[in-house]
Every structure is written in C-alpha cells, then in structure tokens.
C-alpha cells in the first residue's frame, strides 16, 4: 500500500527545513532506517531515515528547497505501514490512485473523500484566505516559504506581493505587538552580470532572527574597558591546578552568572505575545560561534550549577559540533543571555561596535581578546593587559544606569576575581 | 458534418455548463455536447432541484403536523400527485429554460447527442436518431459526463423497482416502499415518500445511515424520524426479489434480516452512483479512464492528456454539484489562461479546503471540514463544542429544539477545522462554517461576530462562545473550557 511520509518535526517547535541532500531516488528499494535525506533546519543538519521498508515511489523537495513540516517528502509503496501511521505519526497511508468503487449500498457518491484536501492536511495548512492563496498561485509564490505577518502567522496578500517583489528578507517575521512590520521595499533592479542566490538555510534563519531582533528590541549599547592582569594570572593558576585548559570565555561566563545574581534583569525576557516579563529559573548562556555557513549560537544550560571545567569543556564540545553542523536542536534553544567573544577571530582589533540582542533575550555581552594597552595608573601611562566589553540590551526593561551597574559588577570580578568570594 | 471550436465540453450538467459559460466569458468559442434535450444534467433535471421541490413539500407537511400540536390546524393533508409533478416540472422547466437563454446569450453552441473521442483534438457526436454524425475539432476538451445511478444486475426489470430518477415521477403516495441504501439520496427519498404517506423501510449494508456524517447527527436524525420510518435494517443486504402482480417479495440476509421475505409495493434503489467515463471512447484520445469509469486529474483538473480536462462526478471525490461547478470554473480558467497566454489565469487550481455535505432531509443535516470521527481516527487534538438547540429560543419557537450545532477547533491554534448542524435550514447555515474554515477563522472570530437574534444561525456564534468560555446562554462551563479569551497563564 502507499504511504506518504511527511517532513517530521525533529525538534520542538520546528516549522520548516531545507532539503540538504537526498540519499534515495524514485524506484529505489529501501529498508526501514536507511538514510533517506538530510535536512538543514534551524541551524543543524539532520539525517532523516526511511520510516518503512519498501520502494520509493516519489520524492519531493529540490536540494535547497524550504519545506514546511508536514509536507509530504516521500511516497513509499510498502507491505507494512510504520507504527503510528495515520495517527499523528509522520505520515499516512493513502488510497490507491484508483478511486475504489464501493460495494453496493455504500455508494461512492457518499464516501466523504474530498478532492485532495484531507482534514489532516488542512489542519497543517498555511493560514491564508482563498483570495491570498489564488494570488500566491498567480505570482508563482509557494506560500510555505512566506512568513506571514498577519494575526497568528496568517499570510496576507501584502506578504505575498512583498515576497514576489523582492524575496523574503525585509519582512518583519513573526512580528507582533508594537512592531507592526509594515513597510514597502523596492526590488533591486536586475542587471547583467548580477548573480542571485536564494536566501535559504542557516543564512535565512540568521537573517530572520536579526530582523526580528532589531525590529522588536529597542537597543541601547555601551562599552567598557578593564584590566585583566589578575584574570590572566588566575587562569594560569587554575589550568595548573585543574590540569586542563580553561577558556577565558568560560571564566567570563562565570563572572556573568555572578553579575546576573545581583542584577537579574539581564537574564529576563519579554513575552511579546502577552506583554509579560519572564524571569527564567536558570542562567543559560549562548555563545556566538562562527561556522562556514553562518552564525550559530549554542547554549550552555544552567551555568550557575556547573563548574568552570564543565563549562569550558562544554564550550569546546558544542563549538565543534556546531562547526560540523551536527549539533542537536536542543543545544541551540533556551538561551537566556548571549556572550560573543568578538576577539577570537582575526588580527583586527575591535575598539567599539554595536551588538544585536538575540531576541527574546534582553542582553548580549561582547568581549575582546586580552592585549596590552596604555592605561593611566597613579598618574603614569603604563602598558597593562586589558579586556574590553561591549553590551547591547533591551532598553524596554534595562535602564542605562542598571546596565552600568551590571557591567561594573562584571568588571569588578574580572579585575579582582576574589570578588567572587563576596557572592 | 464538421465544426470547430476552442473548447468542447462533454456534458451540460452543472459542472459542464458552468465551465462552458466561464470559458465563454473569458473569450473562448465554446460548444457543449449534451445528450439530454436540456442543459442542467442530473442536478437540474432529475436530481437536486426536483427532489428539493418535493422535499420542501415534505417539510411543510411535517411542519403542519407540528402546527396541529400547538393549536393551528389546517385539516387533513390532501395530496394531488398530478399537480405536484406538474409543479416540479414547471420549476425544472424554468431553470433549464433559463440556462438555454444564458447559453445563447454567451454564444455557446449546444450539440445534442453523445460525444466520443476520435483523437486528442476531435470528438464525434452521434445523434440519437441515427442522423449524420457531427465531428467537432477542438483545441481543448472538458469531460463533464457525470454519473448515473448504480444498479444491481440480478434485479428483475420491473417498473415498481425505482431509482433516484424514476422515483421523481411519484408513482404512488400510499402503500409500502423499501429504500435500498441509507445514504443521503436514500434518506431524502425516504423523507419524501414518508411525508406523502407511504410506509418506509430502509436496508443498508453498512453499520450506520448517512456514511460520512458523525454518529451523533445520525442518532438525532433517527430519533426525529422514528415515527416516519418503520424499519431500518443495518448491516443487511438483499438476497432476492420476486415480483408478482400484487407487489414485490424481498428476502434479506445479514444482521437485521427478517426470517421471512417481506412484501412491498415499491422498492427504491439508492446504492450509489457510477461515473460515466467509460462511454466517451477515451482510448482514441489517449485518455486514461479507470476500469470503474473515473478520469484521473491533477489539481488543475487536467487529465493525462495535456489539452483534455475532466470535472465533476467523473473525476471522483464527493459527487456533488457544488464541487463540480467549482472544478468547472478551475478548468475553464486554466484553459482560457493557456489559450490567451494569460499567466495569471492559467495558474487556477482546485484549492478549496472543504466541500460541504448536506442531506436535505427533515431534519436537514449538514457538515463541512473535519468531522469528529475523522479527528478521532487521525488522533488530532481538537476542541469539540456543541450548542444544543434546546437552548435556542428560536429553535423552541420553531419546534426544532432537537437540533444542535457542533464546531471543531484546533486545540492549540483555536482555528476552526470543521462543523455540523442538524435542523431546519442546516444546509443554508453550513456556508458560514465553510467560509470561516477557508478564511482560517479562530473561535474568537466567530464568537465576536454579532449573529442576529433570534435565529437558528445564531447557534454558530453561540457554539464558538462555548469554545471561548464566554457563552451566557448555557449553564456556566466547568473547567473544560477556559474562562474568557485570555489564555491560561498558570505555569
């Protein structure tokens, strides 16, 4: 019998994914759990395996194509349906192409087979009115790739036209509350010599997240410098005593935990849908990681309850997984504040800059590398190892003075690590 | 003889004429090939419209019975079958006459006869009287040949064994009738003949009447009709029919089969409909027609042959006129778009999310979208709310307080997924539910829309209020629904 396999939700809340590669083609015989395809979702590449043993009748999804969770990606001919088929699983058995002629007294006229619209399908369908659906067809726009700006993610006719005119970026995706997200964008004229590539996969996720952050969060930023001599000395001591490498990033995270205990608003979020301020029970610090495909922010969960060694090891482990794109979706979720080590790449020295808060978090901290800089000590200009911090924060819930106090606490701990004892 | 056109439509039923008229309005030169003398197909000539003419009178008779019980007595019902038939014929005549006028105004040519393909760009129309056959060369074709009542081969040929077409001739208004098939058509016929005064039995092979409808609707229907239908034999089939001058002797087998054959004056076969795809010589055009007579199509209603489309009963799915009309418009737009190189028009597709179903019985039953039965089968998380009409002042005033309105919402998003009504005018009210589903409406959208009071349609708004926890026309909800609009924020 036929079995339609739907693109599964491999992590909580996943709504769409990009097809990264196919391991099968129509006509192939497959065994259950054989590799089927790779999908790139919300920052990770995940292998999807065949749900059943049988023959592949058709596959759907070009490499690079964005598909909604629930879209049929493979049709199998199989002897044995997977467990859960048709009952909330990732697929459903379908009737043969031939509409069956019912036995007399169960007439075909009264079988509630609908012309293609199964009840399950339309529950998962994109929210758009019939007129919008027609407009999308006319414009050649796949509604599944348009982020709706209407209530509840509804795709509006404006969204379709904006997409048709200039692609996805520029939409205030998921905009709610005060943002509105209505603006008109002119397309970039097509000219000879230009090349164009669809904004997909991780790059699209980053783009959407950045637009969401700058659209929703009123940013305020400030920068600070501190001496880091004692911090360096402490690191050396710890590495000797613990017999393992300890990163400055991990140590700054510990200092952040201390500052958050004193100034918890840095760890809060606004729930835009309810206008509530949410205080999480943990400090989950995301750390920005550069990969060849774009920015990924793995999250170290509950930093307050972990030792320095654990945090340092976890940073190395998650960064490696992120770079090889094998990181689990769960390790990318749940961050409550972000740390970006802007000094870890290249030779150029950042002397300022504005970081973008990772919505719905309220704050991001950037740290530079430690390097000798001229400072004034006892009226004399001397060279001393220095570490600069930049921070951007959600000015709706964090005042400038409060941010200053938070950073002062952080710097106190860096300059005199013994201050940790005070907490 | 020879003629040429941009588009030939095989079949002038609701799907066929709608496709032809839409295509003509979009600038195509169109011909309809129709075997009947009039346009309108089964629906107008021997289906929806004539049966509704009788069903309205059946509803009136049932209303009169109610009126009698509340002090308004018109005396005994007298039925003049000749006048009633003439009334039906007059209505059909008005409608099909109107269609003929609209066809000529659009310059749509009507060719009488049955069309058979002779190639992918030509059909041959043989006239019933054996006169010269006509060959029509076309750029595009739409197959809209519909369906016909299914027959059991082993039945004797006897004028007292009716189908849904001959039943409309109203051969009798007294005596006994066996209805074979408990689907919508069978129940509508049961409603008509019971109201006229016949004693009705129903035999159905399946385990319930009205397949496709939720069982609570059917239970309510059966209660309301307990006085009008003598015997309902479920999971039972015919095992033999003997005819003699005095009537029909029918034997049964199955769960509810009586030991002895039962005698009836009439039998009405309503066991389904068979698509007419086999009578069009599809092979000659390379057209795929399944062994059962269906023509497979894609969402644009296009068959396996690029310039041949098919719509309506012959493509499968529910055999309903409103589905056929919608499909006819889609096919016409795709064809006109391709013909005139209109890139927008040619993207038309069948994209409706729901096709409402209605049983025009007394009481009327209507449903659209997801049913409770399907939701259970799929394991979908839905909120099912029912507004009982006993809480509706208008339903009490009208004597239809046994009805109810049911709505199904997605548990998380609150989006309306399906709905059903049972009671007078249920079919007229289901359109609001279908529209709300197509628009992606949430419970709040329906609940916050002011529905006029006191009406039966108001129960849709009230049902949505029940889902929202804001309804004040029922005892206060306890726990199952949230109180008011704001989501529960407790951790």
Automatic annotation (TrEMBL), chain B:
FAD binds at residues 52, 115, 313, 319-322. The keyword Iron does not apply. GO terms for molecular function: dihydrolipoyl dehydrogenase (NADH) activity; flavin adenine dinucleotide binding. Pfam families: Pyr_redox_2, Pyr_redox_dim. GO terms for biological process: 2-oxoglutarate metabolic process. PROSITE patterns: PYRIDINE_REDOX_1. It is an enzyme of class 1 (oxidoreductase). The active site is at residue 453. Belongs to the class-I pyridine nucleotide-disulfide oxidoreductase family. PANTHER family: DIHYDROLIPOYL DEHYDROGENASE, DISULFIDE OXIDOREDUCTASE. The active site is a redox-active disulfide bond. This is Dihydrolipoyl dehydrogenase. It comes from Sphingomonas tagetis. The lineage of its organism: Bacteria, Pseudomonadati, Pseudomonadota, Alphaproteobacteria, Sphingomonadales.
